[in-house]
Amino acid sequence: MDSLDPAVLRNGLLLFIVLFSSLCLRESARAWFADKLGDPTPHNDGRLTLNPLPHIDLVGTILFPLVCIFFLDGLFFIGWARPIPVNANNFKHPARGDVLVTAAGPLAHFVLTLVAAVAGAVAVRYLPVAEELTGRVIQINAWLLAFNLLPIPPLDGGRILRYFVGMTWETFAAISQWSMYVLIAAFYFVPLFQKFFAVLIGIAATPAAILFGLLAPH
Fold first, then answer.
1. CA 15 to centroid of chain Cα atoms
2. CA dist., res. 110 & res. 30, Å (int)
3. Distances (CA, A) of 95 to 86, 102, 164
């Protein structure tokens, strides 16, 4: 890839900005859910905010996404923000509270696809180029939604699954040590998994795509 090509730089930076914003908003949503469920830990840690700065992880929010976008041709891109500190013992129902706070991350990505669809449908009436940005926001958040709901530790889907199958934290941690390497390898070397994941992204993006189609001018 010619990383100095203006079009490549533009598209890469647009992808990075949307990914960066989405990751930080996801953690804000988790902090908000934890606070509403009775845990003051995120507030005390300064994480109950839409300001992205407290949520940034240098490697996961900046360096790793940039490498994926500009050096891995965007085939696989993922990132993470600083995890929200949560003390489940502060919840009235600790297990239920932990599941809800965990689910708040994927839920935030889903809501962002819908907000982008509505905002984009309005904006495109006056600025046709807004359709491209809308598509990017929907695509990236659908990707993050589908990825994080995979029932594999340490992803959100795996953390939620742990409660339903009675998995111990020791087993969860042991699987987490190698699962991400297996996932990355699957993205690059297993075409069937690539096709399966593409279907998941399509499913995740469908509600927003339908909403945009209904609201956007024809």
1. 13
2. 14
3. 12, 11, 10
Where in the sequence is the domain holding 191, given as residue range(s)? 6-215
Does residue 154 have a cis bond before it (omega within 30 degrees)?
A: yes
1 domain residue, yes or no: no
User: How many structural domains comprise the chain?
Assistant: 1
Residue among 150, 188, 199, 155 at smallest CA distance from 74: 188
Tens digits of residue pLDDT in 75-125: 566 788 999 999 999 999 999 999 999 999 999 999 999 999 999 999 998
In a domain, 134, yes or no: yes
pTM: 0.92
* Cβ neighbours of residue 102 closer than 8 Å, sequence gap 6 or more: 30, 156, 159, 160
Q: Which long-range contacts (CB under 8 A, 24 or more apart) does 69-75 make?
A: 69/12, 69/15, 69/16, 69/19, 70/1, 70/3, 70/8, 70/12, 71/1, 71/3, 73/1, 74/12, 74/15, 75/187, 75/188
User: CB burial class (10 A; 0-12, 13-18, 19+) of residue 140?
Assistant: buried
Tokens standing for 21?
A: 């914003």
Buried b (16+ CB within 10 A) or exposed e, 128-137: eebeebbbbb
To the nearest 10°, the Cα dihedral for 181, 186, 188, 193? Answer: -160
Q: What are 175-218's pLDDT values in tens digits?
A: 999 998 899 889 888 999 999 999 999 999 999 999 999 998 87
Catalytic positions are 27
